[in-house]
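Consider a concrete sample entry:
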Amino acid sequence: MKTLKILVGVAFIIVISAFAFNKMPNSKTDEGYSIGDVATDFKLKNIDDSLISLADYKEAKGFIVVFTCNHCPYSVAYEDRIIALDATFKEKGYPVVAINPNNPKAYPDDSFANMKVRAKDKGFTFPYLFDDGQKIYPQYGATKTPHVYILEKTVKGNIVRYIGAIDNNYKDASAADQKYVEDAVNALLEKRKVPVEITKAIGCSIKA
């Protein structure tokens, strides 16, 4: 009986410990980052063949990291809005950093060569990086294109402050009445809490 009580007690402690670990704030999960996590930096190839990392942006206050691609109709629908976000916020300290997470063997349209063509045709004003080997998007937890992560640069690192969609109407920018990314960055610039921290990213699944 005594041995049974000890075993039950040990099992109880294990269950409680596991529950507590899973509920720890800012903990990293298998699905990627949560709000408040410190996001990993990276060094990825840009369309000009240079290597880009977040650490290169010495004067930045944060970043609008967008996982996107060439072929996805959702990504295409949002391209002008991504360019507009960069135009609005880059000079304020929140530049856009776009990353193509797709495997070009699965979708040749998303090859590095085609990324260069697309960026030139659209006049991208931001780096368009290739997640070679698909090592970065799983760390972030991106599942769609486009999928946005807004990071705030702090002494502790780049803190995740928003995850999700750009706005609530991919078909028509003028009809979007919830501009999640714009509102989030403006809140951070004004030292306010981000009003909506997580939304569902709408787009194509990332091709592995």
Residues 34-205 form a domain with the Glutaredoxin fold (CATH 3.40.30.10). The chain has one domain: 34-205. DSSP finds five helices and ten strands in the chain.
